[in-house]
Design a protein that fits this description.
The radius of gyration is 22 Å and the shape is globular. It has one helix and 29 strands. By secondary structure, it is mainly β. Strand 13 and strand 14 form a beta hairpin.
Amino acid sequence: MRSLAFAILIGCALPSVASAQPAAELTGGTGTIYVGGYPNRIFVIDEATEQVVDDITMTLDGPPRGLTLSADGTRFYMQDRTFEQIEIIDVTTRRTIDTFTLSQDTTKVRIRGFRASPDHRYIVLLTDPATKEIDRFDIEPRKLVQVDLETHEVIRDIPWPDDEERTSVNMLFSPDGSLLYLFGREIIVLETEGFEEVDRWELSQLAEPGMGRLNFSFRYDPNEEPGFFSNIFRMQDPVQDRSLMGIARINLAERDLDFYTLGPAESVGSFTIAPGRQAAYGLLSQIGHYEFWTFDLAGRRLANRQVIEGRPRMRLVPSTNGQILYVFLAGNTIDLYEAATYRYLRTITLVGDMTTIFVVPN
């Protein structure tokens, strides 16, 4: 169902969605936090005690790049530091179960992006091949390839839509693996038997008539419902010539867009959904000025915003019980804040810098 609602961006006087608890009782839940770290490991943190209880050592050279958790939560996929190899780790045993590369002899095949199928039978890679000749390097066009994860053989090259090569691509499988979505200026849908195009659309086609172009980025969120995407969008109001922001949620299977504006656009990023999908959080980050934002998704409004001390580079992710916000990036520390009040609680310090965080319920 399409809908358009307007709300005014309001200050921190409104109550937050989460409820406050005494600091002594406040923990993130009983999940596990996985942190990709230097030089070649994944830190395993018990969420209840906030202690590192294990670390997973990569077989390949680290740090783990492009660290991705599979849709069923059973495997980690990652690249090595050369961008030539993929390593697969079993989450339960915390051991490497496979590695592979497409590089061979004088041909280096660098992997610029990837997405594994939900059943773990194959992986789609964005590759960047280059062959060293006697007097030159022969650089091939970037291409999408389907690789069998058992044999490591290339099953097929996947043609670029409209024969237009891309330097990067954001991909997502449908929950049943029957479709592959390519995100860019348009959403292009490929069936996964022969990887032929079966549908495409622009977000503006799903919006209300007369609206400007929606600018919307697609990023994996473990708390989102499979087959859906939610994020902050920005658009230009063609009538009043102003830039607006709001929240959009896309049902990929139904080609349905539900969105509402919140007010004038601001540079809020790191949008992340809280457990239960009733709230979401964001970070406003400017030079010397940082804010937490809380979005009431059920009420379709901005619930709260507040200035915090912050740091120059940061992202956030909520705890498994939604009571704590973990702030991380560019360093070896994870700062903990109370989600209800934005109160700083404490810091987890690791022995190496980090790349990515996954907070997983047990």
